[in-house]
Amino acid sequence: MAMNKELMKGSTATMLLMLLNGRPFYGYELIKELERQSEGAFALKEGTLYPILHAMEAEDWVQAYWETVDGRKRKYYHITGKGSQILKEKKREWIIFRNAVDSVLGRGGV
């Protein structure tokens, strides 16, 4: 099930930082891992992913490097120290936000 783009806007960078907190990924791999971990709820297109990664790179949240694997040159991204701090802040914000939404909508199933 595809997620509403408006709901995804504020959390996509945080989810990408969380994935990169575990290990470096190249772009397509990030797309597939996000889709896998969200059980298909978050299916990003490359046209959505790369502007977010480039913005995070400009903010020094991630750094990119090139690596050749099996004869293919790929651009990998890894989280920086600043990105790790931002991730901690974003996770705290998310907990507050989630609790507030749950309080209004009610906890539990649909």
TrEMBL record:
It comes from the Bacteria. Gene3D superfamilies: Winged helix-like DNA-binding domain superfamily/Winged helix DNA-binding domain. Residues 16-88 form the Transcription regulator PadR N-terminal domain. Pfam families: PadR. This is PadR family transcriptional regulator.
